[in-house]
Design brief:
By secondary structure, the protein is α+β, with helices and mostly antiparallel strands. It is 27% helix and 33% strand. It has an 8-stranded mixed sheet with strand order 6-3-2-1-9-8-7-10. The chain has a two-stranded antiparallel ribbon with strand order 4-5. Strand 2 and strand 3 form a beta hairpin.
Amino acid sequence: MQRVLFRPSKQSLVEYIEIEEPTHGRHFLCVSVAKNKLVQLCIVRCQISQTALKSGSKGSHTERSSIQECYRKAEVWSLQDLTLVDGRDADVDDPCFLLHFDKVRTVTAVSCSAKYSFVRALFALSEQHCQKPLNLRNFDWAYITPTSFYSNRGDCVVLTQICFYAFNLVCLSMCPVPLDA
């Protein structure tokens, strides 16, 4: 998708999730950043094309579908125009969420973890490129913002190892040593 759809228009695909749509084909909700730092959200539709290309050697009769024909941007918005992301209910494992632009767009991710992954990316991009916090409602903040435990994983591992070694030394010091040998 990056090579076929975003790179030719000088954009970098940052995050994408597969979403469920009523129309035929696979659909993705994507967020990309342009060279001018403009952040865009878009719905990309992937419809398997019926045309096939010959591939392989001259004697080969292998055919493959054309990926270039597959991806099309169906809807495009700017992150600046996003006024609210509503998770609907933070206490329920619901993959559906609402994007509030000038109109409200309902999005159903394939999983709740995909929904949170996408919202984390939007949250970070909003702070980085828009210099404003993203307005979120009905999300579990523990899964959105990084905590000290998650951001300093290396320090926690080192501390755990030190505690493990200290515990082993205490246990070994309490073991009786035979004096007969």
